[in-house]
Amino acid sequence: MITVGVLFGGKSGEHEVSLCSAASVVANLDPLKYRVVAIGIDRDGGWHVQDRPVLVGDRNFGKVLKLDCRGSWLANHAGLGGILELFDRESGDVCAVDVVFPAVHGTNCEDGALQGLLELASVPYVGAGVAGSSIGMDKDVAKRLLRDAGLPTTPWITVSVDEWREGPGAVADRAMKDLGLPLFVKPVNAGSSVGVKKARDGVELAEAIEFALQYDIRIMIETAVNCREIECAVLGNRKPRVSVPGEVVPKHEFYSYEAKYIDPQGADLKIPADIDDKLADEIRSAAAKAFLTLRCDGMARVDFFLEKGTGRFYINEINTLPGFTAISMYPRLWEATGLPYGALLDKLIELALERGKEKKSLRTTL
Q1: Tens of pLDDT along 56-79?
Q2: Is the peptide bond before 272 cis (omega within 30 degrees of 0)?
Q3: Which CATH fold topology does 136-152+225-358 show?
Q4: Domain parsing of the chain, residue ranges
Q5: d(CA 234, CA 253)
Q6: What residues are paired with 300 via a beta bridge?
Q7: What is the pLDDT of residues 23-32, one digit of tens each?
Q8: Of 185, 177, 179, which Cα lies nearest the Cα of 205?
């Protein structure tokens, strides 16, 4: 039986969302196929192994995976033939997993840092590798690569905390002159709409920049497009499959953190999206190209803006570790495409093991 280590929690602003994603993953992994171990990462970065994962009720998220912060666990990076070994130096307990399923989000979790640790341990894991994770998390770098690949992106500028502190007036003037109003401001390295605000004038722009700089030292200012929000789920390694497109219809002003996770009525999800077949095929083709351009593996969700009135679409961003909650778009898109949640988890683990086997076959000597 394959032992799956579900990584959750994390030292990021998306810690709570991860507990919910992990609960859904654990609840849907087939106990006849997998032995499941929960590996919680607390807010200080400490790891805690739970041999028997426990789901508990939560006021905001319904069900979450309990993070029991006991023990002082260390991960063995020495490379034990494709097995990740975890050791509790307090109790002496040892736990070994065959494949890791990261149900984590945000900084240090989906930006390549965690993936680098797993690479050092030579353990297979679900999702993009170091390069794809790092690129996907850095919205500025991702947009540059997408643009250079001929894929449509919205106009933007990126501003560092130093630029803002040294010349806030110049930054605001440039943004409004080059991009117009209204604008969206977001941290470069964050997800789940954490730190995102809309600005309709100079005062709101300054407030939005200060807010976003609480979550990252670089922020992105983008033209706000009057649009419909379309999303596609991508699955695979070098030959990715793309789901039917779905549409997010926010009931808030935009698809905020609250609309995504807190307010159960925060948005309507229309799957499949009400768009014609030709446009759907073009969007799905762009999603596959974006996935390969940004060096993704396993899975990703590609988000688009479909401009009202013109029918033009733009790639907003790519999410290499999309939410896996019961209401998350990624699993729901695949369910609508004919792949139920449990079968989707099976396929993701299969892809992780396939990629791990391929890497193991590569020569490491001259």
Answers
A1: 888 777 889 999 888 889 887 665
A2: yes
A3: D-amino Acid Aminotransferase; Chain A, domain 1 (3.30.470)
A4: 2-125, 136-152+225-358, 156-223
A5: 27
A6: 234
A7: 999 999 999 9
A8: 185
